[in-house]
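Your task
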Amino acid sequence: MKVLAADIGGTKTLLQIADWGENTPQVLAEQRYLSGDYSSFDDLLRTFLTETSSTGNGLRGACFAVAGVVTQGVATATNLPWRLDATHLEATFELPQVVLINDFTAIGYGIEGLTPDDFAILQSGKPEAAAPQAVIGAGTGLGQALLVWQEQTGHYQVLPTEGGHVDFAPQGKLQIALLTYLSRQLDHVSYERVLSGGGLVTLYHFLKETSGMAESPALKKALSEGDQAAAISRSALEHGDPLAGQALDLLVQIYGAQAGNLALACLPRGGLFVAGGIAPKILERLQAGGFMEAFLSKGRLSELMQQIPVKVILESKVGLLGASRLAMRLAYEQL
């Protein structure tokens, strides 16, 4: 069963053709592209299919995961000027079936295909079989999804959300000052504004302007030359930069608090999974305690929070795996 899958993010897009056997895919072709290099997904997909023309024949279906809102077969990317239409893609590229899903929906479907080595455990908790699960992940944006067990299929159904855009709820004087700072610049301060790659940059500039701490010349130079979030994270983790370290610690605390908010909203006794591009890169900071301290700090319900398993997903292609897995399932349903 040969299918086409894509994981479309604001920074990068992964495309893959896989041939599924019995619940196991054989990857026939896979490419990574910088999303910003293409004016539309059509242009990118055309490039990929041209480059892989020898393996692209006989496709039975396609599933494209998009970092954005998906409604009735149309997806609008949140951090890209792209609009995808399933019907248009089927006709333009002669694909038998195209399904568009949210990128965190894809991550949810990909979890089933992971192994224990693909996770780092932050809290073992008391996992319950067939109980709800949840996913949260910071990267270019902030994504969240819910997973609900379906007895008739023997699989989890993934429910997408836009929970990353809920109101930022500060904890403590520093975060209250952060909200005040951002409210002068933004009409709506959501968690994504402070819990993402761009959010880390925002936290750094907030602390630089309000803490009185001096910016190191080396980091100032790095910020002017490339990926600012990566420069801040690297300076904190590898060089011990105090200002960058405080910004990263603040992000970790906010991350843990919002993961806890998500857990309270759906009680994922089957596990809460931390996904996205940032978590694996700052794993040592997540394991240092600030994340779980904020996660558990829920007043009268702190004891309940201790029962929820919390794991970091280490496999960077989990979204691509999930999109491919769903394309396979839907293609089999058409037989």
Notes: Residues 115-314 form a domain with the Hexokinase; domain 1 fold (CATH 3.40.367.20).
